[in-house]
Amino acid sequence: MTTSLHYFVANEGEARRLASALAIACEPIDVRHFPDGESLVRVSNASPVALLYCSLDHPDAKLVQVLLAASALRDGGAKRLVLIAPYLGYMRQDRSFTPGEAVSQNVIGRLIASAFDALITVDPHLHRTPSLDAVVPGIVAINVSAAGIIANAIAAIVGTDTILVGPDAESRPWVEAVAAPLGLEVMIGAKVRCGDRKVEIELHDRQRASGRPVVLVDDLISSGGTLIACAGQLLDAGATKVAAVATHCLANPDDLASLAASGISPVLATDTVPATVASISIAPALADAIRAHGLA
Ligand code: R5P
Q1: Is the same domain home to 120 and 210?
Q2: Which of 62, 191, 198, 241 is catalytic?
Q3: For residue 44, how far is its CA from the centre of ligand 1 (angstroms)?
Q4: Is residue 158 located within the same domain as residue 120?
Q5: How far is CA 14 from CA 57, 171, 270, 280, in A?
Q6: Of all residues in the chain, what percent carry a pLDDT higher than 90?
Q7: What is the mean pLDDT of residues 106-119?
Q8: In a domain, 276, yes or no
């Protein structure tokens, strides 16, 4: 079966890189808005296997357009419909932490499962959920790791004495997966979140960083507060240099400026979310996963 890839303009560069890696057709999705803001979506040339590329940062506006495009691709003849959402929003709220709160992960996961046959995403934020299959019941769920791509990308900026530091227990799998191919030491902290932009980090063995370069590794940069808190402690402990790398960067320009002012340099991320620091293409890892599952 032939495969086509369909994208919204916000992800044009990333989608084109993926289509090029797969040597498949790449079609833009037209979106126009009625005066009240309602979206009208138009797709073209759906193949029997249609890949819809839409990273779900800022998801509230995007989810409606994704559902409309999915329906149009089905109507256009797609027999197998795959959502490629390199960043999958709404994964943080995986339980009702306070009475009355919606469990957003379940709601959005079921919505995606109702419209697609498969979901491909990268390093989803599944801290308490056992697997991506549980998020999108009944469809194929493909969880792509960015660790190999990140390890390749930072190989040029690390030395044999570099320590890779994860801010909290949840980061350990990412940090160890990046460190393993590079043969580097890891250090893992403990984190307490006090608010959307405020965290307390404890790096018990930070003295190990004295006189050594450090790379902070995390799945997500949101406000940047976690990385800034880590960097302060490591520089105080005598680290010679602090860089940072993450799979996803959601930080706004002010937060990126704060990261730069904190002494972290460089800050790197994959292009799962378009950002000035998103210089590492995730396309090769996505292409491998798509081929491995016979989708192109
Ligand atoms: C949390 O569990 C994540 O892995 C990140 O550490 C967190 O989302 C980063 O948020 P921020 O950049 O706002 O500190």
Answers
A1: no
A2: 191
A3: 38
A4: no
A5: 14, 25, 10, 11
A6: 96
A7: 98
A8: no
Instruction: Find, among 289, 280, 284, the residue nearest to 156 by Cα.
Output: 280
Interatomic CA distance for residues 108 and 113, integer angstroms: 9
> Is residue 191 annotated as part of the catalytic site, yes or no?
yes
pTM across the whole model? 0.96
CA dihedral for 39, 44, 89, 126, sign (positive or negative): positive
For ligand 1, pick from 123, 197, 226 the residue to mutate: most ligand atoms within 8 Å of CB.
226
Centroid of ligand 1 to alpha carbon of 198 (angstroms): 10
CB of 262 within 6 A of ligand 1: the answer is: no
User: Is pLDDT of 1 > 80?
Assistant: no
Total Cβ atoms within 10 A of residue 115:
19
**Residues 127-156: pLDDT tens digits?**
889 999 999 999 999 999 999 999 999 999
- Residues 11 and 121 placed together within one structural domain of the fold: yes
Ligand 1 atom 3, closest CA? 220
